[in-house]
Design brief:
It contains three helices and nine strands. The protein has helices spanning about 5, 35-45, 100-110; strands spanning about 10, 30, 50-55, 60-65, 70-75, 95, 115-120, 125-130, 140. The chain is globular and about 45 Å long. The model is unreliable at about 1-20 (pLDDT under 50).
């Protein structure tokens, strides 16, 4: 029996409205020593949505977590055989856009999450802060949505 046959998807924690198929995206991905615990932290504490979790025995073969304000990540259990193309646990970093940065900061601080950069207004107009997750990955949350896209052909 191959890995695909062993995988079982968990139910979505929150139903997605019909017609929410996405266009191709960029999907940051990471691996975790304890993927189940990291998923629980990112969903239960930080606020990601559990979109899909496929398991292979006690391992997470593949998981997708959506950020409610847009974007998503993929993660799974650490596998030494994938060192050629995957980051080791605790070496990942991401910037997550939120319009609710002060509320999120307060909630994560109250929950005892490790703050690695205090909330602060940046000279380029963003308000942001940073945390470390239980695996040691670094997450920044802020209001900066990026520079406007250049026109095609410019």
């Amino acid at each position: 029996m191959n890995t695909t046959e062993n995988m079982n998807a968990t139910e979505n924690q929150q139903p997605q409205p019909s017609g929410t198929n996405r266009a191709p995206d960029v999907w940051p991905s990471l691996q975790a020593n304890d993927a189940h615990a990291l998923i629980d932290f990112l969903v239960g504490t930080v606020g990601f949505l559990r979109t899909a979790v496929y398991e292979d025995g006690d391992r997470v073969a593949h998981a997708e977590l959506d950020w409610p304000e847009g974007g998503a990540i993929m993660l799974g259990s650490y596998d030494e055989k994938s060192q050629e193309w995957c980051l080791k646990p605790g070496t990942f970093g991401a910037y997550v856009v939120t319009d609710h940065v002060d509320d999120l900061y307060q909630r994560l601080t109250t929950a005892g999450v490790k703050i690695i950069r205090e909330i602060e207004d940046q000279p380029y107009g963003s308000r942001e802060f940073g945390i470390a997750d239980p695996e040691g990955n670094k997450w920044s949350f802020g209001t900066y949505r990026g520079a406007p896209r250049p026109e095609r052909g410019a």
